[in-house]
Each structure stands twice: as structure tokens, then as C-alpha cells.
Write a structure and sequence with these properties.
heterodimer, A: 318 residues, two-stranded antiparallel ribbon, 15 helices, 2 strands, globular, B: 486 residues, alpha/beta, six-stranded mixed beta sheet, 17 strands
């Protein structure tokens, strides 16, 4: 009898990129749910706008690059980019701004470099950074959580903390403000907890591995705790930093984007720790309310070097 | 006797070993025509010493080994029909075709060996005549390996019973039924290689084999032998990894195990050694697992070397109809070789015939770009970064291939198994190796051509010089003569 032949191995686990991407989307669901609970239906609308824009831009880019589009549109990677960006921006952002940011993320952040697997920078954070530097006002106005969804918009807790301390208020006075919650920022502490839950799910399903999130959280918490210990009046503690801004979303969903992250275990520890540290520095002394996006992009820059110096020891080599 | 972990990486795979192990090893009748591949799986061919028409008996030597090839002995009595190219499991190769006369007459020269009376060197010499080869798959000559070990003064003989491929269970069956043969073979090999002790390694998913082996060891009462039980992780049966797991020593890259004082042999090889010394029978048969959902009655068969695979499948009830057999694999599902036809013969290195249905080996998804997820690196048992190696192979970047350890890849296929982008990584690495060998050969040819040309030029120059000197000499002499004549 005759049989077809093929190269070994002849069996694979059947794990695919689309399945990975849809697990990530699933893990983002609690974050979206909490945002809707806190801020009303705005985030839902933003996620929809971002997803539609992202799919359209992906199709456009693939057509311009003369690539088959069906598989790429179905792999879910562009939806992850869109959802991350939509969940990272303020919930009352005008929809056309988000559409612009998403289009920039997909067309320039991803496809200008060669599409899936080729982008040196996290596309969602490219989109976020472009929006933040172009539209700083819109990008830093967060609503206070509550029944009157669009009643109050103002600075984030991170912003209020830095500004307040610079203006000579004490830590107690600053933290008495409405922007602050029990752990960190009012509202965003719940978003952070939801992202932590989603991240735990991804870790449990082995979609992501622990090195980057743990290193990033440690890179943020350790300097924050040290500074707070030395100067409690001038610096917020580790808990505040962990439960504010985009910390957990960054640690479990953004920094873990494998394409733009370092690839060896040791490289990922350094990469994650770097993101945490840079985030803390920007939050403490920088001009922007949150530092996660810039920290990720800055550490993306170091990836080729990290990959070069963290090649693991091969069996049988000294 | 403790379970030690694999150093890093590896896969815990679903086992498919129960069905063939439900019955004992089935002896196969002698084939009507035996096809003896001169390359038994080691990559080198033995030298045929018979021609068409030569009469042979069971155990008559028909080819002499050298290098990585072993002696070959006729598994049947009868007449050599031809020495010709035939399809084999490792591609087309020269084969000795012996037609059986059905009488199974034993060569009268075959005699048991009083091995305990021989010293190591003499024993090695006698073992070399047994055609014994690595039954684990590599088919490297046993005597040659033991001789290297003896010369290096190894301390540990490691018996590999770690059968980590999910479908293969011939060693499990062997240990259950012939553990005392394995123990005897181990003792003989200890004497041959001069090691002080032997460790028989097997996995924790073989409790029956372990019990049989413990009983055989108790009978033998040889304190030099011990059992080590390891977790059933693929690819722990790979030589270098097993040595590391058992002894804690890593064979340096590019070196052989004797470098760290260890020599490794398969348990099936040990049983063949025992048979050779106690009955005088060289390596004429082996146990082959015939399994998969595409065969009616999966079993472990004791088949003579040279039996066509089709006869093995027939002995197991033939190919099933629903669902039909889709693929035929020589060896395991991860590291085996896909066969184009079932006419190929059993070789000393063939441990398994996997008759797979489409459901046994589901097709891969469409290939996608690498997303650098690093799952491949997490499972690589030798600590490579397959994603980076893939990049270097794709770019045909020799420096990158060297830095990311192409030479150290053991082609186990773990990276392919987990890759969410369905990239054929192992095949890519194999191709990169082939390309490197080709480049190397080209470089060598170019260097040789250059040397030849330079020598040619030198010879020409020397010739011209010599002619010029001769001419000038002649002229000087002519002038001198002229002067003298004046």
C-alpha cells in the first residue's frame, strides 16, 4: 500500500494563534464589564468603534500589501489591539479620536512594519501614544464613577496626586479628594482588579507566562514601596500604584504582547521589570498622568538588545 | 530509585500504549523473502559478501560492517536472489534479497559464547561479530560504542528503557517478558566496556516492566546494577537528556557520552546481546510495535530483520477500513519517518510501525507568522530559542544559526508540537543543516580546486624555471665552450 509522506513531527497539539487571541479577548471581558458598570455604556461603544475601525484598516492594509486577507482578519490579533486601545482610553473620548488612534495603530504600528509578528512596537500603545501627545486634554479627562456618568470629568488620581504634591498639599489632603478610592484611584482600582482577574485566567490557561507580569508589577511596586518608606509624604505606596491607572491592564495584557516583547525567559524578566520601573518614574516625575504606554514603548526599543544578551545556556555548553 | 525531573522543557503526552500491550509479544513466522538493507538505520552501508546464488543458512554472515554499519546475518536459510537497490525506511538503498527455503536451517558455526572467560578486549571482538546494533532507533554498532567507552574508561553503563514516544511500547513489552535477558546483556556489556556499574532507566508509566526488572535483578543478585525510575516526559529517551537526568552530567556539545564517563545502550540491545552469548544467535530479529487506529489488532511482534512491513501489518489483522489508514510512520509520531510504501523491510533500528488514521495524526492548521510567543522555547529540552533559530534559518544567517545552537538541536519536534502558528520548525532546522552541509561540501570542493590549481601553477612555474635554467645552463655552456674554443 502507498501512503503520503511528510516531515516529522507528525502530530501537533492543535493550538492556534486565533485561539490564543480569542482567549485574550475573553479575559478582557471583566475589564469591559467593570468599566461599563462604573462609567456607563461609553466603553462598550468605544470597543465597538475600535473593532470596526481595526478590521477595516486590517483589510485595507492587506489589500494594499496584496496579501490574502481572510485568515488574517479571522486570526483575532487586530481585535486584541483594538480592544486594548479602547479599554485604555478615557470612556468619554470622542469616538472619532479613538477611530483615528486605532487606524494609526493598525496601519502604522502594525502593517507598516510587515504585519502580524513583525512590529517592533506594541501597536495598541503606538495608537495610545499618538492620541496622548496629539490630544492631551481629551486623553486625560476621566469621569468620576457614579450614577451621573458624564456629570463630572477631571484629572485621574495619578494626575491629582502629582499636581497636589507639587502644589504643596500633604499626602493626606491630596488623598482625601474624590479621585481616590480605598486602594488607589476611585473606579480604576476596580478596573485594575478586573484586569488582574483576567490576567490570572490567562496565566491559568497558559496563554501568557508569569515572567513579564510579575517582573513588571515588581518593577513598579518595589521602587514605589522604597520611596514611600523613605518619604511617605512625597510618594504614594506600592498598593496605590498597583491599583491605579493602567497597571494591571499593562502587566497582563499590554506588556505581554509577545511580538514586541523580549523572547527569552531572562529577557522577559528584564523587559517586564524595565516597564514597571519606567512607569513609576514617569508617574512620579514625568509630565503625563500615567506612564504605562510610554514605558512599554521605551522597553520595546530595548528588545533587540535584550534578545541578544539573554540567550539561554544551551544543553552541553558551558 | 527515585523519580528525578527532566532538566527542562519536554512534553507530557497522552499515551497510546495499552492496546499492543494487552497480549504478549507475538512471534512472526520467517518471511518467504528477507530484504536486508545494507544501511540498517545508522546512515552507513555494510559491505555485502554474498552475491546472487550464494546459499545461506540462518545466521550466516552476508555483509561486513565498518564505521557505523554492523555485520549482517541472514535471518532465513535459502539462497541470495539479488543484491540490488530497494526502497527502505531511510530511502532507497542497497539490499541483500534472500529467498527462504522454508527449512530455517541454522548455520553450524553459531555457538554460545563463554563470555565470563574472556577479557574485555576479546569479548568486544566477539561481540562485533554478532551484528549487534542500537535497537533504540539509531542502529549504531554496539561493539563499536562499547569499545569507545572502554578506551575512554567510562564509569557508568546506562541502559535506556525510557520509551518516551507516545505509541511505541516494544521496550515495555520486552522488559515485561524478558527482563532476565536484559539483566544478562547488561552484565555482558559491563564486562565489555569496563564500567563499574550499570543503571537501567525507565519511566514511571511502566509499573509492570519495573516489577519484572526488579524480580530479574533480585534473581541475578548483582549489586552493580540498579534501576532508576524517571517521569514519563517526552523526549527523555534522547541519549544526552537521559544521561543528564540520570547522572546529572551534560555531554559537552559536539562530544560523545564517554567524555562524561557514561555509555548508553538500549534495553533491546541488551536482550540481543544476551541472546548472542547464550545461544550464539546474532541480531536476526527484534520486537516491533505495530500500532495505530489504522491496524486491526495492534501488537508487539518479534519479527526477523528483513521482513516487509506489509507482513507485519498483515500479522496484526491488516489495515482497518473504518476509518482507513492515512499514514504509515516508521518510529514514533514525533520523531518517526513517514513511509511512502509498506514494502520496506524491518531493520535493526525499526522500533515501531504506526498505522495512523487521520484522527490519530490530525492535520496541521495553516501556517501563520511567528508571534514570538516563546512556547517553543519553554518546551525545548536542550534550551534553544527555536523562534530565534527559525528566524536565523529563514534569513539563512550562518552566524545566527551558530549562536542559537542549530548544531545542538536534537530534532525532537517539541517546538512544532506547541507552535500556535503551525510553523514546521524542525523541518526548517533540518533543511538549514542540510544547506550548511552543502555549503561545507562546496567550500571543501572549492578549497580543493584552489589547492589543485595552485599546485598546478607551481608545477608549471617550476617547469618553466627548470627549462629556463636548463636553457641558460646550455647557453652558458655553449658560450663557455665557445670561449674555450677561442
Amino acid at each position: 500500500m502507498e501512503f503520503p509522506t511528510s516531515a516529522s513531527p507528525h502530530v501537533v497539539a492543535g493550538y492556534t494563534v486565533p485561539r490564543v487571541m480569542f482567549q485574550v479577548l475573553l479575559a478582557l471581558a471583566p475589564v469591559l464589564a467593570v468599566q461599563v458598570y462604573l462609567y456607563g455604556p461609553g466603553p462598550l461603544w468605544l470597543v465597538a468603534v475600535a473593532c470596526v475601525t481595526a478590521l477595516a484598516c486590517e483589510a485595507l492594509a492587506l489589500a494594499l500589501r496584496r496579501r490574502a486577507s481572510q485568515a488574517a482578519l479571522r486570526d483575532g490579533s487586530v481585535l486584541v489591539t483594538a480592544a486594548l486601545l479602547a479599554l485604555a482610553v478615557p470612556p468619554l473620548l470622542p469616538w472619532w479620536l479613538l477611530a483615528f488612534g486605532t487606524a494609526f495603530a493598525v496601519l502604522i504600528g502594525k502593517h507598516a512594519y510587515g504585519g502580524l509578528g513583525q512590529n517592533p512596537f506594541n501597536p495598541a500603545m503606538v495608537g495610545y501614544a499618538v492620541l496622548l501627545v496629539s490630544f492631551p486634554l481629551e486623553m486625560t479627562r476621566w469621569p468620576l464613577p457614579g450614577p451621573e456618568w458624564d456629570a463630572l470629568t477631571g484629572a485621574t488620581a495619578l494626575d491629582a496626586l502629582r499636581t497636589g504634591l507639587r502644589q504643596g498639599y500633604t499626602m493626606q489632603e491630596v488623598r482625601a479628594g474624590a479621585e481616590f478610592g480605598r486602594l488607589g484611584a476611585a473606579g480604576s482600582e476596580w478596573v485594575n482588579l478586573a484586569a488582574l482577574a483576567g490576567g490570572a485566567y490567562l496565566l491559568g490557561r497558559r496563554i501568557i507566562r508569569w515572567q513579564i507580569p510579575v517582573a513588571m508589577l515588581a518593577g513598579l511596586a518595589v521602587p514605589a514601596a522604597l520611596a514611600h518608606g523613605l518619604d511617605p509624604g512625597g510618594h504614594a505606596g506600592a498598593t496605590f500604584h498597583l491599583a491605579s491607572g493602567a497597571t494591571m491592564l499593562g502587566a497582563f495584557f499590554i506588556a505581554t504582547d509577545p511580538v514586541s516583547a523580549a523572547t527569552s525567559d531572562r529577557g522577559r524578566l528584564l523587559y517586564g521589570a524595565g516597564i514597571g520601573l519606567v512607569t513609576w518614574i514617569i508617574r512620579s516625575w514625568g509630565g503625563y498622568p500615567d506612564g504605562v504606554a510610554f514605558a512599554v514603548l521605551l522597553m520595546n526599543l530595548t528588545v533587540p538588545l535584550l534578545d541578544r544578551v539573554t540567550v539561554p545556556r544551551i544543553h552541553g555548553h558551558p | 530509585m527515585s523519580a528525578r525531573p527532566l532538566l527542562r522543557g519536554g512534553l507530557r503526552l497522552e499515551s497510546h500504549k495499552t492496546r499492543p500491550l494487552q497480549q504478549s509479544v507475538q512471534p512472526m513466522p520467517a518471511p518467504s523473502t528477507a530484504v536486508l538493507a545494507l544501511d540498517q538505520g545508522s546512515g552507513e552501508e555494510a559491505q555485502a559478501v554474498v552475491t546472487a546464488g550464494t546459499r545461506v543458512r540462518v545466521g550466516t554472515r552476508v555483509a561486513v560492517g565498518c564505521g557505523a554499519a554492523t555485520d549482517l546475518h541472514s535471518p532465513v536459510s535459502g539462497e541470495v536472489r539479488a543484491v540490488e537497490p530497494r526502497p527502505t525506511a531511510s530511502g532507497p538503498g542497497t539490499c541483500i534479497v534472500v529467498a527462504s527455503d522454508g527449512r530455517d536451517e541454522r548455520d553450524p558455526d553459531l555457538e554460545p559464547l563463554d563470555w565470563s572467560a574472556l577479557d574485555g578486549a576479546a569479548l568486544l571482538e566477539r561481540l562485533a561479530g554478532g551484528g549487534l546494533a542500537g535497537f533504540g532507533g539509531a542502529a549504531f554498532p554496539t561493539a563499536g560504542k562499547l569499545a569507545l567507552a572502554r578506551a575512554a574508561g567510562v564509569e557508568l553503563l546506562l541502559l535506556n528503557g525510557a520509551e518516551c514516544e507516545p505509541w511505541i511500547c516494544c521496550d515495555d513489552a520486552l522488559l515485561r517478558e524478558r527482563a532476565s535477558d536484559v539483566v544478562l546483556g547488561t552484565q555482558v556489556m559491563l564486562a565489555a566496556c569496563g564500567a563499574a556499574r550499570a543503571t537501567i532507566a525507565l519511566e514511571d508509566d511502566k509499573p509492570e516492566a519495573r516489577a519484572a526488572l526488579e524480580a530479574a535483578l533480585a534473581d541475578a543478585g548483582d549489586s552493580r546494577l540498579e534501576i532508576v525510575v524517571l517521569p514519563a516526559v517526552f523526549p527523555l529517551g534522547a541519549e544526552g537528556l537521559l544521561i543528564a537526568a540520570v547522572s546529572g552530567r551534560e555531554v559537552p556539545s559536539g562530544a560523545l557520552p564517554p567524555e562524561v564517563g557514561v555509555v548508553c545502550q538500549n534495553v533491546g540491545t541488551a536482550a540481543a546481546v544476551a541472546r548472542f552469548v547464550s545461544e550464539g544467535v546474532p541480531a536476526l530479529s527484534r520486537i516491533v510495535t505495530v500500532t495505530g487506529s489504522g491496524v486491526r489488532r495492534p501488537a508487539n511482534l518479534e519479527a526477523r530483520i528483513g521482513t516487509p512491513v506489509a507482513e507485519l501489518v498483515a500479522a496484526c489483522g491488516g489495515y482497518g477500513d473504518t476509518p482507513p489508514a492515512a499514514r504509515l510512520i516508521a518510529g514514533g509520531s514525533l520523531t518517526g519517518r513517514a513511509l511512502a510504501s509498506d514494502t520496506v523491510p524491518v531493520t535493526k533500528g525499526l522500533n515501531c510501525v504506526l498505522v495512523a488514521t487521520a484522527a490519530d495524526l490530525p492535520a496541521r492548521a495553516a501556517q501563520m507568522p511567528c508571534i514570538r510567543c516563546g512556547d517553543c522555547a519553554a518546551v525545548c529540552p536542550v534550551g534553544l530559542l527555536p523562534q530565534q533559530l527559525h528566524r536565523a534559518a529563514h534569513a539563512d544567517d550562518p552566524a545566527g544559526l551558530a549562536r542559537f545552537g542549530l548544531a545542538d538541536c536534537i530534532e525532537c519536534g517539541c517546538c512544532d508540537y506547541v507552535c500556535p502558528s503551525a510553523i514546521p520548525l524542525t523541518a526548517g532546522f533540518r533543511a538549514a543543516r542540510d544547506r550548511q552541509q552543502l555549503h561545507e561540501a562546496e567550500r571543501r570542493r572549492a578549497a580543493e580546486a584552489k589547492t589543485r590549481y595552485e599546485r598546478h601553477r607551481r608545477r608549471l612555474d617550476e617547469q618553466v624555471d627548470a627549462e629556463r635554467r636548463a636553457f641558460e645552463e646550455a647557453r652558458r655552456r655553449a658560450r663557455g665552450d665557445g670561449a674555450g674554443g677561442n
